């Protein structure tokens, strides 16, 4: 997946009350809504002209269903089912912007115009089901399971060996950095031409942008290393290039780590700086996540979420970010119950909530809640779904299949 909770896929892969018109207007305007304790899951929200029917987001998830980077019929059916299940915004699994930025097999690509026709079929089907869909775009950097080739070098901000992926990346030249910035911009243009409602930049979970942000991975001594402002320069250049390409009226979102949860990695103070600067530059929404593969049990997709107090494990960090920025905050990470969802929204800790694993088992979860069945999600957070993603048929809930049989 896109380490958007597709992210744990990598480790698995490697390890085998509203009232009146005034209130309605406030809820529809994230700039006005801010952190007011008013919203609930089934309230609509607008993000730079993109109106969502509710506050639910399907976090980017690698499905293992692409064919040579192209969107397959099976993947279209999977995402269409989420739209029919009343998910407010669907975010695709991460799509690589350059061939050497591919992380996993059967991953979506957005590196070439040839992928657009299939993606047009996807967006048409999702829209016909009354859904909204964004594409997440990424460069994996050193976090790839693919073999290194001369025509597909492994890049990183610095030549720092990655023990998890057992690879030594080549420190990128400034020319290669600019090439990658342009690749993100071209990819965003393809996203818009393919009929998507928004684009999301993947700046979390240890992929290339996340690597540049991390003092642990970024040892550069030029303008792209050192201070947090320098380490974030690559991301800011990507954002500016993407925004220039897609225009002011096309929603551009980003996924960020609250912190990396490893010694020497990105900390929350630096994340706050990045979030505030992105707001100044014009970012439309920020999805808060956390962790990288090396963080182990403190990674993005944590296991054994059984009690309410174990849900929403990035909530304390999101609250701090939310107090400092006015753009909509999307919170991901272990959300399993409607009670938790509405607590997050009513207290103004975040403006939207994002889920991945629960929607693998129950694509119709949001609709189930809407229709009155308020029981918590069936997902038991075992993460076997990510292992299943390696199978020829792609990702599915192993427990649900065993239960059904």
Descriptive report:
It is a single chain. The chain is of the alpha/beta class and 405 residues long. It has a single domain, classed as Aldolase class I (TIM Barrel, Alpha-Beta Barrel), CATH 3.20.20. It has 16 helices and 13 strands. Strands 3-4-6-9-10-11-12-13 form an eight-stranded parallel barrel, surrounded by seven helices. Helix 4 (73-84) links the parallel strand 3 and strand 4 (89-91). Residues 1-8 and 10-37 have low confidence and may be disordered.
Measured on Cα atoms, how large is the radius of gyration? 19 Å
CATH superfamily: Aldolase class I
Average pLDDT taken over every residue: 90
Assign the CATH architecture. Alpha-Beta Barrel
- The tally of beta strands, per DSSP, is 13
Main beta sheet: 8 strands, parallel, barrel
């Amino acid at each position: 997946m896109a380490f958007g909770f597709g992210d744990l896929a990598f480790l698995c892969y490697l390890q085998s009350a509203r009232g009146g018109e005034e209130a309605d207007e406030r809820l529809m305007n994230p700039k006005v809504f801010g952190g007011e304790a008013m919203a609930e899951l089934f309230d609509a929200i607008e993000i730079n002209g993109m109106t969502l029917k509710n506050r639910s987001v399907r976090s980017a998830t690698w499905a293992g269903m692409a064919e040579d980077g192209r969107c397959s019929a099976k993947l279209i059916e999977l995402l269409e089912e989420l739209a029919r299940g009343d998910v407010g915004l669907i975010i695709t699994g991460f799509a690589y912007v350059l061939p050497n930025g591919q992380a996993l097999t059967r991953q979506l690509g957005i590196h070439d115009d040839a992928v657009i026709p299939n993606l047009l079929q996807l967006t048409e089907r999702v829209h016909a089901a009354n859904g909204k869909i964004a594409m997440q775009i990424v460069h994996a950097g050193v976090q790839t399971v693919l073999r290194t080739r001369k025509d597909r070098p492994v890049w990183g901000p610095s030549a720092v060996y990655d023990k998890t992926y057992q690879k030594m990346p080549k420190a990128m030249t400034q020319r290669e950095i600019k090439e990658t910035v342009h690749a993100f911009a071209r990819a965003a243009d393809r996203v818009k031409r393919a009929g998507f409602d928004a684009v999301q930049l993947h700046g979390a979970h240890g992929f290339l942008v996340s690597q540049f942000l991390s003092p642990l991975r970024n040892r550069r001594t030029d303008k792209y290393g050192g201070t947090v402002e320098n380490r974030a320069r690559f991301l800011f250049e990507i954002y500016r290039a993407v925004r220039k390409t897609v225009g002011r009226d096309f929603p551009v979102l980003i996924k960020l780590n609250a912190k990396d949860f490893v010694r020497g990695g990105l900390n929350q103070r630096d994340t706050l700086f990045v979030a505030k600067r992105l707001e100044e530059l014009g970012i439309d929404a920020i999805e808060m996540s956390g962790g990288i593969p090396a963080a182990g049990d403190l990674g993005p997709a944590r296991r054994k979420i059984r009690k309410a107090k174990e849900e929403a494990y990035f909530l304390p960090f999101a609250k701090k970010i939310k107090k400092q920025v006015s753009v909509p905050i999307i919170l991901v990470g272990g959300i399993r119950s409607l009670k938790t969802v509405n607590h997050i929204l009513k207290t103004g800790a975040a403006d939207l909530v994002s889920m991945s694993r629960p929607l693998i088992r129950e694509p119709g979860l949001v609709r189930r809640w809407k229709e009155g069945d308020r029981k918590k999600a069936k997902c038991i957070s075992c993460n076997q779904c990510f292992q299943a993603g390696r199978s020829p048929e792609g990702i599915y809930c192993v427990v649900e299949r065993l239960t059904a049989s």
